[in-house]
Amino acid sequence: MLFNSIDFAIFLPIVFILYWFVANKNLKLQNFLIVIASYVFYGWWDWRFLSLIIFSTIVDYSIGIALTKHKNKSKRKTLLWLSIVVNLGFLGFFKYYNFFLDNFKTAFSFFGTEINANSLNIILPVGISFYTFQTLSYTIDVYKRRLEPTTDFIAFSAFVSFFPQLVAGPIERATNLLPQFYSKRHFDYSKAVDGMRQILWGLFKKIVIADNCAHYANLIFNNSAEHSGSTLVLGAIFFTFQIYGDFSGYSDIAIGTSRLFGFDLKQNFAFPYFSRDISEFWRRWHISLSTWFRDYLYIPLGGSRGGTWLKVRNVFIIFLVSGFWHGANWTFIIWGALNALYFLPILLTKNNRKNLDTVAEGKYLPSTKEFLLMLLTFGLTVIAWIFFRAENLTHAISYISEIFSSSLFTYPRYISQTKVKTIITLIFILVLIEWRGREGQFAIEDIAEKWKKPLRWIFYASILFLIGMFMQTEETPFIYFQF
Fold it and tell me: What distance in Å separates the CA atoms of residue 380 and residue 393, rounded to the nearest whole number?
């Protein structure tokens, strides 16, 4: 079920009413309702894959309990590896089987040996990359004794399948989300209103920005050989805002929806395109995944401790794995490697913790230096996104090669100048509003406090008007569903 669908517009009020007016006096009934609602939400896409979520839930719930019963270090480690193998085994089969098979066959054919093995027609279960990491965080934290295992199977099932963030995050830690299922929740009007405000902003970013940017990004990328370098730059910028509007928009809707039910999820995007270096960008982009890899992979490998070689190795491992997490294509791996190359000079010069504050905090405008650093970081990010969007490495290289040709200095040509100018104007509006609200959890968080009621409602009505005006006739899936 898509957040931007009629189905969800009907589904959400029904669950909300049942949750607060029927099950509000019974915590277990509320949790059970969340489980059922989450399974309906996920099963709306394909009921068959509910078995994977249920199986993963049973495995990690059982292993969590078993970890408390066994004090022997060897047995505990065996249980941990059982969870890792089961969860990553499913993820590896559905997401990477054909990738490894095709590259295995290519490697052998290079040496003159043909391997007769057919690829499988595998459907990638929506959200498997997200809920797999969520359940793994629980098992690892119980193993590390950071968290007491739960004996409440319903609460744990609700944690694993919580529908607002089930299919595209944020990837919640058990230490943050699971305890919230143990406590009685009371309806908080101000919290619900704040959630609705964040949902509204998320829908704006998805429907008005991402979906319209996607149309022209696809036209330009899919016919890149026909376009000049200046037009290709425009296509790359459109994709840059498409992926941000789409993914951060999903996170805003997920977090806002959670607040309607009394839950607090972690911020997943913190205005990353206002970053002054790549290190800051990765502290602000897909925060739940970045911190997951930091805590469960990068730090156990040694992090930034040790000699130069170890630092370089760990940075490349973390970014290559992050790239591979996004998809079974060499373009994602190169995208990760390129970000590692961006990050290394900052780490080796010990400037990776330099920009921890918000840019131009408390000011209307950045300094000239801050503006230039933001522009440089944004430019590097746009180049990296080309690999992320390209069909294959050949496509990415030819795309970038044409950008850095003499045609870069020509006037960009596209199908409809009026529509493209409209989208550029909408992007400009997005940037202005996000810049204004960059110190909050989301761009329009503080409007209720700082704007008078008439102005506030005019703004909300304007956003709703734009959403209605630019909504596609067909439902458009969120881009991260494919990851």
Answer: 18
User: 186, 227, 286, 326: which one is catalytic?
Assistant: 326
Domain residues for the domain of 95 are 6-187
Which one, of 211, 218, 294, 223, lies nearest residue 2 by Cα?
211
Q: DSSP of 357-389, one letter per residue?
A: S-TTTT-SS--HHHHHHHHHHHHHHHHHHHHHH
The reply to whether 153 and 272 lie within a common domain is no
Find all residues with CB under 8 Å of 117, minimum gap 6, and list them.
Answer: 101, 104, 105
* Alpha-carbon span 343 to 315, nearest angstrom: 8
Stretch 162-179: mean pLDDT, rounded?
Answer: 92
Task: Kindly state whether residue 442 falls inside one of the protein's structural domains.
Answer: yes
Regarding whether 199 and 89 lie in a shared domain, the answer is: no
pLDDT on residue 288: 95
- Answer with the residue of higher pLDDT: 198 or 226: 198
- Does the annotation mark 326 as catalytic? yes
Instruction: Please report, to the nearest 10 degrees, the dihedral formed by the alpha carbons of residues 230, 236, 240, 242 taken in order.
Output: 110
Angle at which helix 229-260 crosses helix 368-389, to 10 degrees, equals: 90
Indicate whether 373 and 236 sit together in one domain.
yes
- Which residue, 139, 172, 187, sits at the end of a domain? 187
Q: 73-103 b/e with 16+ CB inside 10 Å = b?
A: eeebeebbebbeebbeebbeebbbebbeeee
130 shares its domain with 20: yes
- In whole numbers, what is the pLDDT of the chain averaged over residues? 90
Given a cut of 90, whether residue 247 has pLDDT beyond it is: yes
R_g over Cα of the chain: 23
Count CA atoms closer than 13 A to 327's CA, side-chain side: 17
Q: How many domains does the chain have?
A: 2
**Residue from 182, 188, 256 nearest 31 by CA:** 182
Task: Report yes or no: 266 and 170 within 8 Å, Cβ to Cβ.
Answer: yes
| Same structural domain, 176 and 196 | no
Residue type, 5: S
Q: d(Cα 267, Cα 269) in Å, to the nearest integer?
A: 6
Using an 8 Å Cβ cutoff, are 172 and 136 in contact?
Answer: no
Task: Look at residue 323 and tell me if it is in a domain.
Answer: no
Measured CA to CA in angstroms, residue 464 lies from 205, 435, 471 at distances of 12, 21, 10
In a domain, 295, yes or no: no
Cα 40 from chain centroid (whole Å)? 22
pLDDT at 47 over 90: no
